[in-house]
Amino acid sequence: MEKETFEAIKEYEILISQLYMNLFDLGVSEKDEVQWMYDDLEDLHDRLFKIGEYEDKDKAINKEGYLIKDYNGLPKYFKLLIIYRYENGYCLCKNTAGHVELIPKDLISYDI
After folding, report:
1. N or C: which end of the chain has fewer CB within 10 A?
2. What is the pLDDT along the chain (112 residues), one digit of tens a residue?
């Protein structure tokens, strides 16, 4: 995955969260009234990243690791689940909060 593609999907992810919260601010009182829409958008998110039920089982590595130095606001020794390793030098990872990150593979250690 190219960094530009990752950044575009992350911007989309932020907009989804903002939309969800704005609906509540506009008076939608029941979570169930908007949950269907949020679920559909989350499904698209997973398809774009090829995670969850859309994971490419042949290419996924699903190994635990950690950062060997601070990166993009994440501290050194931050635990990660490395989902994919790409030829462009990046890894698609999930952090402990479940957020998807694109991290240079040279900053990740697998020795846990």
Report:
1. C
2. 888 888 888 888 888 878 877 877 777 656 666 777 778 888 888 898 899 899 999 999 999 999 999 998 999 999 999 999 999 999 999 988 888 999 999 999 987 5
CB 9 within 8 A of CB 45: yes
Q: 77 and 104, same structural domain?
A: yes
Question: Model's pTM, two decimal places?
Answer: 0.78
Residue found under tokens 């060997």: 68
How far, in Å, CA of 28 to CA of 16, rounded? 16
Query: What b/e sequence results for 44-69 when a residue is b if at least 16 CB atoms lie within 10 Å of its CB, and e otherwise?
Result: ebeebbebeeeeeeeeeeeeebbbee
Same domain (yes/no): 19, 46: yes
